[in-house]
Task: inverse folding
């Protein structure tokens, strides 16, 4: 392929510069492990079981050294549940000691009073506790029984330890979209900051997306809520597709995949974004020669993603400059073309595109799946209670023996 | 939310990139990051990058602007950019 390398403009808006990519990511997500004590119904990385090929402590340190050289000033650490890695606290200190700040996401399982005090005393670390319902009822249906109590206990411990600026991280779903004010109140009560993000049909999220993604009406309400509260609430680049309602929202209004963001997964694979764990978006591995820097700066996939979109249905839309066609991962995992509308396009083109899909074609699925294979304590009930295999002797003491 | 206090930026004073700030060159200019307040800012032109780096070598921000070839017509925009950087503590007055 003899691609014409697109010319980066000089000056102009930052968003136009970001479209052509940066020498190093601004915001890098690093999932340290696929192991997790929970089994959330919508887990974007299909986490559960540890991958035996997980990066070793030494390999993780080498990645941090490289990030320091590339001046990646902070990373978002997640999983899985990152704190279940025995070397998690060591890697946290190692990163901070090498000028790589850490913001990590956790369900709170390991944040007892001692750890909370340790974090409060550490500069340059941010914690976000995941919570997908402002009440236990709404949260636990998706994240599992007891997970609300665990998160609240962690929040209490952090607040009590005097931790500043910690976050409550919420994925907006059909079931919690009506609780935004409650989330804000709950977060405020801990002196924390609210962060809300978009549900993507990634990982196990694909299984529940039809059931959980916000309705068109809820999206409209979310947009209004963000316009009213957006400055005090973090969203990252989550909701730029809502900008097509009219006004640009605070935050980055651009798909940053491969341009300003990417994902390093627990085995060192580098994907374009945390919601795109699929071979189509795999750019390389940090264990390859040249390491992460070479993947970021030289992979063909990322070069492609840094070419501004010129064709496709969306470029002809009056709102294209506002939403830029929406989220790549959301399109991909719902079986829509990448240059077409987002499935949640607020102008309604997404619904039309979903209806026009060839239903004989299966939507793409990731081959990377670390979901627990057996029942998990407190398993989410969203998809119904797991069936317990009937034991023959429940019926009759002689059942199954041929003597009944 | 608290309203940030407007600190007047005086281009007649000697300035420098804050000691807690790292500068990462990018094709469009640079990214600056404060390890102190964890804020990220963008220098949207290479000339602005040159100005920020030159601050420490000149008796005033005005002199740095002149040395970097900033014209009178551009000066207002550059002074505003420096004032924004001063407000977010990316640059500081030299003692």
Result:
């Amino acid at each position: 392929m003899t691609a014409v390398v697109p010319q980066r403009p000089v000056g102009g808006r930052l968003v136009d510069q970001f479209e052509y990519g940066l020498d190093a990511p601004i915001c890098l997500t690093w999932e340290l492990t696929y192991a997790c004590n929970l089994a959330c119904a919508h887990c974007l990385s299909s986490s559960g079981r540890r991958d035996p090929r997980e990066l070793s402590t030494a390999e993780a340190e080498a990645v941090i050294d490289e990030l320091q050289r590339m001046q990646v000033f902070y990373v978002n650490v997640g999983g899985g549940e990152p704190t279940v890695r025995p070397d998690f606290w060591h890697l946290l200190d190692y990163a901070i000691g090498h000028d790589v700040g850490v913001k990590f996401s956790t369900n709170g399982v390991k944040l007892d009073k001692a750890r909370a005090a340790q974090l409060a005393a550490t500069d340059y670390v941010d914690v976000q506790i995941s919570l997908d319902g402002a009440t236990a009822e709404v949260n636990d249906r998706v994240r599992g029984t007891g997970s609300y109590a665990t998160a609240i206990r962690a929040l209490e411990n952090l607040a009590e330890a005097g931790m500043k600026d910690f976050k409550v991280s919420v994925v907006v779903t059909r079931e919690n979209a009506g609780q935004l004010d409650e989330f804000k109140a709950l977060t405020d009560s801990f002196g924390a900051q609210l962060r809300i993000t978009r549900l993507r049909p990634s990982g196990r999220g694909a299984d529940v997306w039809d059931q959980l993604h916000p309705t068109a009406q809820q999206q409209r309400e979310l947009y209004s809520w963000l316009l009213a509260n957006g400055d005090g609430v973090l969203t990252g680049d989550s909701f730029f597709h809502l900008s097509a309602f009219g006004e640009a929202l605070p935050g980055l209004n651009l798909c940053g995949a491969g341009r300003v963001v990417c994902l390093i997964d627990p085995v060192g694979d580098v994907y374009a974004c945390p919601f795109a764990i699929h071979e189509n978006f795999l750019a390389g591995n940090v264990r390859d020669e040249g390491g992460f820097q070479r993947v970021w700066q030289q992979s063909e996939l990322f070069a492609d993603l840094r070419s501004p979109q010129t064709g496709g249905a969306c470029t002809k839309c009056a709102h294209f400059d506002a939403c830029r066609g929406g989220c790549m991962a959301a399109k991909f995992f719902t079986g829509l073309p990448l240059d077409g509308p987002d499935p949640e396009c607020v102008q309604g083109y997404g619904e039309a595109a979903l209806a026009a899909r060839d239903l004989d074609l299966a939507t793409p699925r990731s081959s990377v799946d670390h979901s627990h294979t057996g029942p998990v304590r407190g398993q989410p009930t969203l998809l119904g209670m797991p069936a317990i295999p009937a034991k023959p002797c429940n019926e009759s003491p002689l059942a199954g023996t041929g003597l009944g | 939310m608290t309203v940030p206090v407007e600190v007047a930026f005086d281009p007649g004073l000697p300035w420098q990139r804050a000691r807690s700030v790292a500068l990462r060159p990018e094709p469009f200019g640079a990214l600056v990051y404060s390890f102190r307040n964890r804020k990220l800012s963008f220098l949207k032109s290479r000339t602005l990058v040159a100005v920020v780096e030159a601050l420490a070598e000149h008796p005033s921000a005005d002199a740095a602007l002149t040395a970097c070839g900033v014209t009178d017509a551009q000066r207002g925009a550059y002074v505003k950019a420096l004032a924004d950087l001063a407000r977010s503590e990316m640059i500081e007055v030299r003692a």
